[in-house]
Automatic annotation (TrEMBL):
It comes from the Eukaryota. This is GST N-terminal domain-containing protein. InterPro entries: DUF7962, Glutathione-S-Trfase_C_sf, Glutathione_S-Trfase_N, Thioredoxin-like_sf. It holds the Pfam family DUF7962. PROSITE patterns: GST_NTER. Residues 1-81 form the GST N-terminal domain.
Amino acid sequence: MSVVLYRYDASPFSVKVDHVLLLKNIPHEKVNVANMLPRPEITEQLGITYRRIPILAVGNDVYCDTSLIASALERRFPAAQGYGTLFPNKKHGGSADTGLIKAFSKHWADTVLFPLAPAMLPWEKMPTAFIKDRSTFWAPINVEALVASRGKSLSTLSSHLSLIEEQLSDGREWLFDTELPSLADISVHFVYAWLKGFRGVESLFDVDTFPNSLEWLARLTDYLGRLKQNRPAVPKISGSDAAAHIAAGAFEPYNVVGFDTREAARLGLKLGDEVSIAPDDNSRSFRTVGKLVALNREELVLETKGRAGLVRCHFPRIMFSLQVSSQSKL
């Protein structure tokens, strides 16, 4: 199965998925996209107007949101077939707390912890075009207010880091006491590793205050570095070539996700409806429209069509809103 990652280097969530692919040891290609709209490689070629990066394709199936990307890669490239795992067994016996790790990664690391970090970006030096683009995520960005909020953000990041310090206080190597790093480690690491590159955050990384956390951060950075050193470089592919490969690729049978009629009825939907979907937290005006072809409690699948052809686009159920598209009534 061909795997293609759409990303850009300055995107912290792209780096998170880079690390997921490293842990899983999945060969893949990458399309480097712009850090601002437009991104015709996605919107025009694939017919997907989802705003956020990264997205990842496995054959003809395109996955949106890092939480679903991680789950899909774990399912489609299982450890039983020689791939790595995001949910290694516990060091002292027993399987990983898979559901809890997923919830921790999505609903604490991604949703609570990460949003504190962007305040530390050098907004005063950002081009006007970049600020305008990022204002489409939530509301118009007030640079002065963001700069003024840095102290509060740094203090709250310190409070969150104290929870990591507490978790590691018994001498464990990884956050959930697993044999190897898990999705939980990757999901916290990418936030604090990204922050370390900013000015004005030095006081956060105080070895006397957070000795276990900083040792863990360095340990995982070194672990990932060694994995990367021992793997071939990820080849780049153009957006047009990637789209052609995706459109021509095999897709996972619909019955793998299935169609839960009870859940669909709760949403007022039925199989084959023309629907639109967007995240609940930001980028809500960038809705992807397509035909609903699969739905369960974890994910849903829309068929979209771009220049390259038909694509099956997967979204998480949690923190995404689905509705019948007004386009279907025209």
